[in-house]
Amino acid sequence: MPTPRETILAALHARLSALPATALRGDVLPERVPAEGLLILRDGEPGEPEVTLSPLRYHYQHRAEIEAVVQGTARDAAFDTLTASIGAALAVDRTLGGLCDWVEAEAPRPVDLPVEGAASLKAAVIPVILHYTTADPLA
Fold this sequence. Notes:
By secondary structure, this protein is α+β, with helices and mostly antiparallel strands. It has helices at 4-17, 75-92; strands at residues 22-25, 38-45, 50-52, 57-71, 102-105, 111-115, 118-134. Strands 1, 2, 3, 4, 5, 6 and 7 form a seven-stranded mixed beta sheet that branches. The termini are close together.
């Protein structure tokens, strides 16, 4: 049985997989970026939880990361469309079907990455904060 953390990350990946861009989880950047863009979900850090007693509960603000990458001549517009689609996908259900208390993304900080012999990449890391509670930090 997967832990709540894994269940939430899998649900977030499934939500990203519904977008037109290719969504990977924990993979390396492939040699070719699909025309629709590429998203790579990184599990990130759960951070130090707040703890409540009686009953014992661990309240996390888990910081996952989405690497968003586009390539091509209209990469600025494609990047804008891709990041807006991520925001819209998260806004549909901020609890990921009741799996967590709240999901919120932070603003991306895009950078242009030159590629020798090809169109440059536009990429950014988009932090996503997952608020959830568990009874055991390992479960």
